[in-house]
Amino acid sequence: MLDFIQQFVSGTALGCVYGLIALGFVLIYKATEVVNFAQGELMMVGGFFVFTFIGLLGLNYWIGFALAVLGMAAFGMVTERLIIRPILGYPQFSIVMATIGLGYFLRSLAGMIWGTDDLKIDTPFSDGVLKIGDLVLAHDKLSVIVATLILCVVLYFFFLKTRMGTAMRATSENMLAAYYMGIPVKTVVSLIWAISAAVACCAGVLLAPITFIHSNVGLALGLKAFPAAVLGGFGSIPGALVGGVIIGVLETMAGFYLAQGWKDVVPYLVLLAVLLLKPAGLFGLQLRKKV
Question: Containing domain of residue 13, as a range?
Fold first, then answer.
């Protein structure tokens, strides 16, 4: 039972990272119907930003965290303005290829700037443990779960209680109607990309205590976060987080109780099962078009 609880906590922490990356997928898709296949790479760049501020420049952890999030928000806005906005309205295949190309470019650029070695960031939670009887839980895993919950609460109140959050929800429901109601749609879309990149950066920061940062980590985690978004329902923000936790727990349990090779297979088996049995996902809406 102790092993089960420890693996469950580890899987939940990993699933929170998947969920935050999947949340970026969902935010952008809801607003623009664009699937950003470079979302994992945004997480990777955010992790390198944090390493630069904390590991290289020696800044305080929290200051480096804040600067990295702000930097990635600005990077997300620039990416939307220079790469995505000029090709909106073109076939979806063009936008998909643009985001895939962006991912390859960011991986190559990260390798040239930061190298290809595995990097790790020391955090205030790296070495502590919580002991409950014979149960030992690492602070780094618990910090990921707590930070994800706090971030979800902040995003919830932002989207539901602020004018800009309301404008973003209106834009995601119907971009043309939002434009006719006077909402600055282009600005709103840029801000959504900024929030998506900032959330990806948070995922990179939270990932740092439990694994290494390297130029290919975005590809590996991004490909596993995509099944999480599909499982939760590609248009559902809560579903992205729930799907991420489910994928993370199943992956960790499979690696512990089954052969290690099953760990990397489980997310895609879940993806296939969802597409076959419930294509809309756990929280998605089944929409039908009349022709």
Answer: 2-277
